[in-house]
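ping. complex inputs:
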Amino acid sequence: MKQGSFKAVCFVLLALIAINAAFGDENTINSTSVILESFDGDSEYDWKVMGSKFATKTDDASWPQSTVISAWPQALFGINREGKDLKSLGLWGRFDRQGFNWVDVYPVTKGGDEPAEIPIPGRIQYFDLWVWGSNLDYTIEAYFRDYQGVIHTLEMGHLNYQGWKDLQVRVPERIPQHKRVLPRLAALTFVKFRIWTPPWEQVADFRIYFDQFKIVTDTFESLFDGDELALPERVQELWNGNN
Amino acid sequence: MKRYIIIALLISIGGLAFAQQEEVGGTNTERLGIDAAQQKLKEVSVEKFEHDGFWRSSMSPDQGYTTTRLFEGGPLGKKPIPEEEGLNIPDRYVLGTRVDYLHRGYSSFIMYPVRPIPIEGITKTISLWVAGRNFDHELHILIQDFFGRNFELYVGKLNFQGWKQLTVAIPPQAMNGWSGIVQRNYHYNNQMGIKIVGFRVDVDPMEAQGSYYVYLDDVRAVTDLFAEDSRDPDDMVDSW
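pong. complex structure:
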């Protein structure tokens, strides 16, 4: 090999290494498991339910209804020998017509009525929810909002099984969680769960229970000169201090 | 002779004016598709676009891509349905769709609910508010009849500024009960009618470039609820 060609090859190799180093930290991951809602009453949210058009209403009551009950998945907590105050969210639904009815399960601020969205820390990779099913062929979906206000629906699966089951879903790459402009992190917010009834399934009376809504999220953020100015809360603090 | 010509002219002009008035008055829902001895027409709210993630949009990836979300706001000219006044039914949002064209040409995009939206009763007309940005695009409504057969109806052009309420009449079903848009099933009086499965915008090729924004709000129907309301209170509910 001629000396000139050797130099050129070396240059190209060095350039490749430099490019790799420059973008290398894009792949750094710090996965953390976070319980977003335990349904034990220790979070800053209450949970409400809302039904679609043909939800049953009588003179005495209207459905769907929700309540917090003392029950838990044994696969998660065992028989609770320590006697912890474990709770789960119960949902009771009734509809007048079979069809594509839905029930929304959504968080509200503690003691309030307005829907609140739960901010997701970092870039979410997986989420899971323990759901008690009574073998009805309903489907459950989770709704997340991205930084542009667009809602992304992730199907968590069917509820046609018996008892507690951990429904786990991987959050696909197509859901944007970072943007070009600073701050690069464009975290999602959790909006609600929705349960759909298909037209062939009975809807006269059903109960479903939720427990432990958990996520696996990547909380790593690359450092750079001036990264402090890309933290919204810090920027607010600095601007307030100036006034 | 001249006098007769003038009289004839006056009569024909008068007739034209009368015909125009009939047309301007819009669809007479009382007369549309009468196929039952008694009717109980009522305006009902079908979709106010209040629930996140219920509407999506799509177009051919060769032509462009779409983004759909809800926005706070609404047309000021919207009048509440009398029965809904005082019920505090939320009406904060409208549906917005942005279309980014990849190249100019004949294309269309659809905005659709994730599940069909049923309308109770026998639907006579469907109306909705649209902000169409004064493009020569054409709006169609996509519906399904009782048998699940798909139909599309032309709603109107989007060549106007700001919000406008557009209305489309649903053609009555054929006398034989099988052809056309069939809405009635004589077995069940709580499961008749049509379902809305989407809206399609046929894009004017001369204006299919850059980005296009369209907003929808407040889909309503004038529907005959006679059979639904005449349902006996002691009648059983078929939902088990």
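The first strand of chain A starts at residue 31 and ends at 37.
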